[in-house]
Write a structure and sequence with these properties.
Elements (H helix, E strand, L loop, with lengths): L6 H11 L2 H21 L3 H10 L8 H9 L7 H4 L2 H15 L6 H8 L10 H12 L8 H10 L1 H18 L6 H11 L1
Helix pairs in contact: 2-3, 2-8, 3-7, 3-8, 4-6, 6-7, 7-8, 8-9, 8-10, 9-10, 10-11
Catalytic activity: P(1),P(4)-bis(5'-adenosyl) tetraphosphate + H2O = 2 ADP + 2 H(+)
GO molecular function, one term: nucleotide binding
InterPro entries: Diverse_Catalytic_Enzymes, HD/PDEase_dom, HD_domain, YqeK
Length: 189
Amino acid sequence: MPMNDNLKAIKQLLSERLCEKRYRHSLNVADEARRLAEIFGEDPEKAYFAGLVHDICKDEPKEEQLQRIRNSAIIWDDKALGQPSLWHAMAGSIFIREELNVQDEDIINAVRYHTTARAGMSRLEKIVYLADLTSADREYSDVETVRALARASLEKAMLYGLQYIISDLVAHKSPIVDDTVEAYNEYVA
């Protein structure tokens, strides 16, 4: 299914695959991704689509997410294997390629790395990552700071967002996947 040919069908699919709260979140991320794309010179419709489908596998049972990943060519580190909350992003990137016939690697990577980030992210990847952190439904303590930064500078917002996420992971004694560490190191280098 081509990216923007039938957004109504994509929204219908999402409403069937996601709980109401997650579906609304996906719409909010899509709206924010479009806004950020307009600010930073990215294709707004491409950003909207990537934001819309970023959580397409979020409510899929964990066993199905894991099986989808294991059946793919995705290489992942051991820390990711131990964090089921990250699997939906990898599974989603596979789903949109195989089930929706999305062949745009930028969109596929935006979905895949929207939870972990990575070094060398494209502008679209950064936009979707930040749109997910700053969508209208987000209410964490630093969200207004991240929103303001995201509208001013993708790089400053990425650094702040990664610092926030890493400090939260450390506070919860959670492992930090290599992609996140490498993304952070890229911004502080």
